[in-house]
Amino acid sequence: MGDARKPYVMALAQYKGGTGKSTLAGALAAMLTQRKQSVLAIDLDAQGDMTKAMGLAYGDNAANWLWPDAPKALADCVVRRTGTTLDVVPSGDSTTVL
Known about the structure:
By secondary structure, the chain is α+β, with helices and mostly antiparallel strands. The chain contains 3 helices and 3 strands. The protein has helices at about 20-35, 50-55, 75, and strands at about 40, 80, 85-90. Strand 2 and strand 3 form a beta hairpin.
């Protein structure tokens, strides 16, 4: 089967605000991207700081795929970063209901 790599899932969570979750998530995504790793960063923070730090528009993508009767599939919410191995599901107003 060759050298197929297993995907890793990393979640950064802390109830308290101001602890650097979005900063750390963005930094990890950037570091892994520089190492040519494929990264899917999902911003579930209603403030959308990681989304904004990555230069993306604050939209409604993140929450649109989470519900059982979601209007979109996850793949439809992904913003592909051209020329990189980084894909992002940006945060938005609908994330506040999470």
